[in-house]
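Need the bound structure for iron/sulfur cluster, inputs here:
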Amino acid sequence: MSETTENVDTVEITVNGRAVMARKGEMVIAATDRAGEHIPRFCYHPRMSPVGMCRQCLVEIDTGRGPMLQPSCMVPVAPGMVVDTESPTTKRAQEGILELLLANHPLDCPVCDKGGECPLQDQAFSHGPGESRYVEEKRHYEKPIDISALVKLDRERCILCDRCTRFADEVAGDALIHFVERGNATQVMTYPDEPFSSHFSGNTVQICPVGALTATPYRFKARPWDLEQADSTCTTCSVGCRTSVHSSRDRVLRFQGVDDDNVNWGWLCDRGRFNFESIHAESRLADPLIRTAEGLVATDWSSAMSITADLVRSALERSGPSSIAILGGARGTNEDAWAWAALADALGVTRRDAQLDDGLPVGVLGFERATIEDAARAATVVLLGPDLKEELPILHLRLRHAAVEGRTRILEFSPTGSGLTKHAWRSVRTPVGAAAATVAATLADAEVAAQLGSGPVVIVAGRHDLASSGDQVMAAVQAVLRAVPTATVLPALRRGNVVGALNAGCRPDGAGNDARSILVDAAEGRIEVLFLLGADPLADVPDADLARRALQGARRVVSLDGHGCASTMVAADVVLPAAVMAEKSGTTTNLEGRVSTVSHKVTVHGTARPDWMVAVELALALGHDLGVGSLEDITGRLASGGAALGAIWAPSIAVGEPVTVESVAPSGYDYRLVVSRVLYDGAVSTSNSASLAPLTAGPGVSMHPLDMERLGVVDGDVVTVTAGRGGVELPVCADDRLDRGVVWVPFGQGGGDPRELISGGAVTDVSIARVS
Amino acid sequence: MARFNETNLATAHEIIARYPRPKSALIPLLHLAQEQDGYVTDEAMRQIADLVGVTPAEVIGTGSFYEMFRFEPTGRYLINICGTMSCALLGASDLLHAAERTLGIHAGGTTADGMFTLHQAECQAACTEAPCLQVNYRYRFRMTPDGVEQLIDDLRAGRLDDEIPPHGTLARVRQHIPADRGVGAVDPDAVDGPPAWIPVTVEGAGS
Ligand code: SF4
Ligand code: SF4
Ligand code: FES
Ligand code: FES
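Answer from helper R.:
Posting the output first, comments after.
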């Protein structure tokens, strides 16, 4: 379905008397679309398989046996085919279908969210008969019903086009909605008590050709003709899906997916789609704050900036640049990161890291890079990553599609399994702490080796487990590269612009400067000023105790923050309110290195400023001119360094020494802990979005049923999980996908926090006891 | 008794094994569930979903397409009284009223003792024998109101047990396919020989 023009066989057909070159195998409707002849349609969607449900696309097609009415979305082009999209017969057929579709339609356009952008409304005007002969009572259903926390269904409006149900089954792989009953009673429905809680449910709202599916966060907020739109990029995770930001009266009201061949194919995950609510959350910081005896009090920018400059100046004088550290930057734009890196360069500060000890060593960006498209076309994808469905959802969809189509075989290494496990060619349960050895042993298998030799190999590498070190993943990547030196690497890092921030210079220069060593130094009192750029160590650093000690131990903490996160409120001495997504323009870089734009759509909250502006001003206050006076200046600088719009930006970053990971000796504890992220956690943009915050599943620990039997506990019982340092209480649940001896705890679910168990070792072992 | 009992679970596995793809066993398993409980319970649909590897929504979506699957508690005897043209002209409504009176329920209802569910049905393709009805899909032709009363009486007293098994029963003797005649869990794309049920001696087969 992707757009490769070279070497595609073409077929010549005639459309309305005009010769048109069509692509071999494509449907008539796709060819006429490209030829600029519009055929009305409801069920056809270019990213899903055709089903011919609605019959609206009937046109007269002559394949040599005379013109016949045929659904143009179901008929592949053939040489010499003659298509007439405007004949009187075609027109009568299309009018007839519309009259039928409207026979049961409630026509409540004035109170329908879709009114104004509704294909049914539009096509009733353009291709409808104008009047109906039906006088009978219409079908009635309760309106609307909740099919999930985010989506409502009005069955009276539904025209049974099968788009939502097809999407759920074919694209998302969550067939939680389906047609039930038949004939006049046919309706879209979930199973009783089993809501449509797919990570991708919002897409069905966007593709529903009528107002049958509406999204709770947007219902009755605006009329389409009142919306202003700007194309942008989702910066929630590093997939970087293209979006359109819709606002009215200076408030962002929704995000819609924009089809980008290389990245998201028009889809968005629900987290990225609905976290716009956080832009206008009550927790947004409006003014700079400084900490006094009374706590944080509001001040103005000039005081806050001069205090910050003083702090930096005295730190430099007293202890030199190594006493200053910058954490974060991955939530901003490339321009933001560039400006902070330039400021750091000017001051001689080398201690900076856009990751919070929760990603991979920055050397992962030094490998030969793969794109998403490379991965989706590779013969083999070696998955050394996180659960993509939870962390990089649209990348999950792209790889799932590749696997389901039979194009790509997925060889997964995971201690727990993932959303892609059921589509994997092989899924190897990988003992935590022995990933590289398991990878090497698996790759030595003759059948695996043959598969790897059969075509391009892409390694998707990310941090699945926050309770073991990122070095383990690097060692596993190197193990694959030893076996397949031509393999390329797609770094599955998580935060929105993490690759851009690392590329732009917010990266540690040598291991002694990474987030962990910065935090250790801070905890030991060697950091005078710690800058947090949209970073929340208290919530995100896997080692909770280290984060607490670091924020206490750093002499001064300056936080540039949009929402007043935990670290800001607890530890910052100076708080500078930052502009967030849709409040600033610039560019962002996704995990492939692809540079795209983000758009400024609404006025910033209060006096908030973009990060880059703060850096430039702070530099001036400290006597350094960064040589840029506007966003465009910085974008220009970046472009000349390879970060041009649309380009894959890959500055040279050293891979680093091959990592060798010691095999881990048994610890005397019974279980090995795996902690990984799920879609909805305590992340700022999630927890500050009213519709998403309730979707966090809550804390818990999963273990093998036989291990539960041994402990004498059943689902829902509370157990104490203890590591060397401390213990937390969590409810337990059975999961037979886990190996025995492995327990899994989701990250950021509130309650008993697994981060209390993690102390930055190679692995984390725990013992578990039932609370009697 | 909502999930499959042990015997039926074994049968379910046997049925699944007959098909190249587990999903193909969906409808036979719905029948099995209905045979066990007289209707298809929510729990059974969840279990079937697990057994054949689809979602419960897909199970109810497929099952609800078919009229003969019932998803609410259903009497031991499901009485469908035809209400379409031929039967209507020849007194079908009298039959329905007689049944309603005798059973003390309205069409669509089930008696409190769980013995009878009464329905008005569309044409049952026996118009020449109108008015007609079916009990668990067994015909009664040219019925009269008295006949209906008599029928209900006979059913209650168990006088028709031999002829009319409880609702949901597909067959009193279940057929078992000998292993050598089953296709089994073979991927259709992976089969290169002739189908298992065509003897290879047949001329032309396999060429
Ligand atoms: S709800 Fe919308 S997308 Fe789904 S079948 Fe109905 S009209 Fe189509
Ligand atoms: S996959 Fe990532 S980039 Fe795409 S919509 Fe979701 S959060 Fe945003
Ligand atoms: S668009 Fe072709 S049948 Fe619906
Ligand atoms: S009308 Fe009653 S069987 Fe046909």
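Comments: Confidence is low (pLDDT under 50) at residues 1-7 of chain A. DSSP finds 23 helices and 33 strands in chain A.
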